[in-house]
Amino acid sequence: MKSDIVASGWSPLLALQRATHATLQVLSAELVDLDLTGSEINALANLADGRGRTVSELGAAVGSRPTTLTSVLDRLERRGHITRGTRPGDRRAVLIELTPSGRAAAATIRDAVADVEHRALDGLPDEALVHLRAALQALTEVSS
Questions:
Q1: For residues 69 and 58, is the Cβ–Cβ distance under 8 A?
Q2: In angstroms, rounded to a whole number, what is the distance separating the alpha carbons of residues 63 and 47?
Q3: Cβ distance 85 to 97 under 8 Å?
Q4: CA-to-CA distance for 139 and 135, rounded, in angstroms?
Q5: What is the pLDDT of residue 44?
Q6: How far is 133 from 101, CA to CA, in rounded Å?
Q7: How far apart are CA 130 and CA 89, in angstroms?
């Protein structure tokens, strides 16, 4: 099967890139009233469960280095969507938490994500979704 992918000229990685850009365009259009960038949408979506995270934990969740995430967090903090504090028992770790406006934005984002996922994936059989999850996990864990 893997040799068939190479022989066909179809690249799963490039298809993932196209899918990412397409879904981000749809989400950005549906969430235009929030006036957020794709990176800000991603960060808030990953905080939507209400659990505070360190910058490192959030970076891993959004697929970004903590240093890259800093400017996103700066913008979200200026807009009043997040706070930065310390983690109990570890004053060195910066804990990112949603504010009330951040919780509202994150809930809106989660609803939009769920709607796009439903529209895109609802017709797929469960087995295909299991395989999709495995393929995405493998791509996420690829080592350099």
A1: yes
A2: 14
A3: yes
A4: 6
A5: 97
A6: 31
A7: 39
pLDDT range class, residue 117, cuts 50, 70, 90: very high
Mean local confidence (pLDDT), 86-108: 90
- Host H or E run for residue 84: strand 82-87
* Mean pLDDT rounded to a whole number for the chain: 91
Residue with tokens 């295909």: 128
Torsional sign, CA 95, 61, 115, 26: positive
Q: Biggest alpha carbon distance in the chain?
A: 54
DSSP states along 24-83: HHHHHHHTGGG---HHHHHHHHHHTT---EEHHHHHHHHT--HHHHHHHHHHHHHTTSEE
Amino acid at residue number 122: D
Residue indicated by tokens 């999850």? 133
How many CB atoms lie under 10 A from the CB of residue 73? 21
By DSSP bridging, strand 53-54 and strand 90-98 are antiparallel
